[in-house]
Amino acid sequence: MPTLEVAYSPDLYQFYRNDDAIVVVIDVFRATSAMCTAFECGIKSMIPVEHIEQALDYKKQGFIVAAERKGEVVEGFQLGNSPFHYMDEKLKGETTVITTTNGTRAIEVSKDAHQVIIGSFLNISAICSYLVKENRDVLLLCAGWKGRYNMEDSLFAGAVVNNLLVDENSFDLSDSATSANLLFESSKGDLNNFLKTSSHRRRLGRLDLEKDIEFCLQRDFTNVIPVLENDRLVRLIQ
Amino acid sequence: MPTLEVAYSPDLYQFYRNDDAIVVVIDVFRATSAMCTAFECGIKSMIPVEHIEQALDYKKQGFIVAAERKGEVVEGFQLGNSPFHYMDEKLKGETTVITTTNGTRAIEVSKDAHQVIIGSFLNISAICSYLVKENRDVLLLCAGWKGRYNMEDSLFAGAVVNNLLVDENSFDLSDSATSANLLFESSKGDLNNFLKTSSHRRRLGRLDLEKDIEFCLQRDFTNVIPVLENDRLVRLIQ
């Protein structure tokens, strides 16, 4: 029976590392939601980088570069991590570069896994169908907030676990996966309301990002699954 | 308003570090349960050490030394981390040394906090009353299992959060604390049954430790709170 595990922080990845697993990187507010949106809107590929310096190097080479820290676009860059930044005809067919506070770090730590895919509520059904079809070990990797546990990523992980538990014998759950599932069940499907008190929501609230939050909590805006191939994200071809 | 946070692994401590906080170290199965039992049964002090080598040095100096790895007493040592090992007249008034897989590591990483105290279901009411009385920042530090999230420590953290939330304005909760509380609420008070599927429970089950598990899930076996003073645990004098 394949394993289904959740790592609540990129800093716990080392303890869950499993080179045979499909890793789903999760940064609901907002990096992985932005990535899913970008591919739905026709971007060709995205190069995730961990540090601002790397992003700057790409910018000098003429790339369109997104850089977000603490929820805001970093000065001198064209884009941040709002999904709305990626609904732009100009980006169709382009390769862009992206660095964010938490999401790109999670991609970086897990890059040697069997496969790294990008998950968000925006493509949750596509993600779940793919994981069922592949029938192999799964690690749901929450980007969290600066190394800390966060509610929205854990809740998404729980939604995936809940969906995959069609029968009791489909996956062998880690304690963290069992717990994420119970968290999701506590939310009773009302994610927006449930997340009202979460720390990141409050942080984003101060930045006036309610519109982004609502968008990021929508299910199945797209069927596209971004996947890491070498150094870049591309559309997964199934 | 003081903060109430939960770190689900000693490896996340760095992201929650708060030198003004009281840290409650939690390793329900079984290190912190054994420590609470030891003090209830009259031990004078316990020196927690992270590594087997340090434990061996103390043994050479004539100390009674407990060493546990992977749930079993390490060869060449007198004691492990079963609470029953500490119900022994011979230990009354003694200073012993202890190293365990997860619990002593959690003590080590947090030792510079304002205060480090030892929590388990065996002294949960004493812990909660003390935290309410002190009215300062609290960090509940789960020892977990080799860096990973585990169910029993998270559940205990949730039980403490639940107890401390007598009114909504008593503490400012981190996402991890909110989540632990919801986990505890999911258990509906039937801890033993709830933990039946947890990975550590299964691990300990193989070692035939059901009696230990039942003992560790008892509430309020003692009012003693072990506290770290310099290099050793002693009884907290209130």
Kindly describe this structure.
The structure is a homodimer of 238-residue chains. Chain A has 238 residues and is α/β, with parallel strands linked by helices. Chain A has a single domain, classed as Alpha-Beta Complex (putative 2-phosphosulfolactate phosphatase). Helix content of chain A is 37%, strand content 20%. Chain A has ten helices and eleven strands. In chain A, strand 10 and strand 11 form a beta hairpin. The longest helix of chain A is centred in the middle third of the chain and has 14 residues. Chain A is globular, with a radius of gyration of 16 Å. Chain A starts with a strand and ends with a strand. The interface between A and B is medium-sized, with 30 and 29 residues.
Question: How is this structure best summarized?
Answer:
2 copies of one chain form a homodimer. Chain A has 238 residues and is α/β, with parallel strands linked by helices.
Into which percent range does the helicity of residues of chain A fall?
25-40%
Main interface by residue count: A-B, 30 and 29 residues
SSE pattern of chain A:
EHEHEHEEEHEHEHEHHHHEE
Query: Beta fraction of the residues of chain A?
Result: 15-25%
Radius of gyration of chain A: 16 Å
Can you count the beta strands of chain A?
11
Oligomer: homodimer
The CATH topology annotation of chain A reads as: putative 2-phosphosulfolactate phosphatase
